[in-house]
Amino acid sequence: MSQPLSAQTIALVKATVPALEAHGLAIVHEMYARLFQNPDIAALFNQSHHGDAGSQPRALTGAILAYASNIENLAALAPAVERIAQKHVGLQILPEHYPYVADALLGAIKAVLGDAATDDILAAWGEAYWFLANILIAREDRLYTDQRTAEGGWSGWREFEVVEVVPESAVITSFTLRPADGLPVMAHKPGQYLTFSFDIPGHAPVKRNYSISAAPNGESYRISVKREPQGLASGWLHDTAGVGTRLKVAAPAGEFFLDDASERPVVLLSGGVGLTPMVAMLEALVAKGGTTPIHYVHGTHDRTTHAMCDHVRTLAASAGSVSVTDFHQQPLGDEVAGRDYDIAGIITDEWLVANTPIAEADYYICGPRAFLRHAVATLSQAGVAASRIHYEFFGPADELLAA
């Protein structure tokens, strides 16, 4: 249990907000440069999110600024803290890793701010860091315990074997995975993801998260991966991984998942490869049965990029409570409305408000950042309570912390 922050620490941390606004990104880059001098620590991170063009330094800068700004009201950061804890568990971050971050952060503050980083300022930030770190460590310990003790659960990295590979579109391929030990797997919550540690020849271990795209079955998981331009892990999976390939996998994690106890209507809203957790949710809802209205709304570029279309429509046909609306932004010349897609163009604010149960539905949203930000803003402005808007996005855990 963390001791409450002292009044002096709160005051000193809040006093650094202007400096963080001006120099926060430089501090974060310096912090990562110090951390990554240790190859064992560097291996814990998804390196595709780092570098000058990476999203993680910007995200962490926003997170640090949000923490300093809300140091007297940390309850406001609770959803972001849970998001970070879930990501840490996927990446196998352990208590012994936290001192490295503390040393790197405080060293970076001193290096960037120079004489302005007095001993009192550094002491305050040290106290503030360990206050938050201890909250994360305690939550992560609970998550690790839940994973380890669940039926079919495990700790650390478990070896899985690819047992099926299915091309879903020109850019998305599904991989079904079974544990190499032949034992059961824990039931994930539809919407959660798996974290992988790939051993790709010529590269340090590569960490990636991929949403599980199937409902729980106790025997296997399915991931559906988009080939990203210059994507090291996705390119390797598409080009090299096949039936028999073995992969190191951490237990399911993530705070974005279906509330299967709710009786409210459900809207599953996705863009591009964001459909992957939505398919898992749809499978689970259809298997559950019932008459609760389910609206599956998906947007993609055209037929060639539209993954799992037939599977989704087959699921919908088996359950009278499911409606499907597919948007193709730029349909190909031979595509036919009503057969290949439902509506040409993008999912508009007007359509979403007019054609989904704004007043009562739970909205689950996944897709690229621009898509997600716009959808969340639209629903909020239309009066949908924040408690009914659930989202997942691609990128660092704290990307929306300061949003």
Automatic annotation (TrEMBL):
Its cofactor is heme b. Residues 155-259 form the FAD-binding FR-type domain. One of its GO terms (molecular function) is nitric oxide dioxygenase NAD(P)H activity. Its EC number is 1.14.12.17. Residues 4-141 form the Globin domain. It comes from the Bacteria. Keywords: Detoxification, Heme, Iron, Metal-binding, NAD, NADP, Oxidoreductase, Oxygen transport, Transport. It catalyses: 2 nitric oxide + NADPH + 2 O2 = 2 nitrate + NADP(+) + H(+); 2 nitric oxide + NADH + 2 O2 = 2 nitrate + NAD(+) + H(+). Belongs to the globin family. PANTHER family: FLAVOHEMOPROTEIN. Is involved in NO detoxification in an aerobic process, termed nitric oxide dioxygenase (NOD) reaction that utilizes O(2) and NAD(P)H to convert NO to nitrate, which protects the bacterium from various noxious nitrogen compounds. Therefore, plays a central role in the inducible response to nitrosative stress. This is nitric oxide dioxygenase. It comes from Aurantiacibacter flavus. The gene is hmpA.
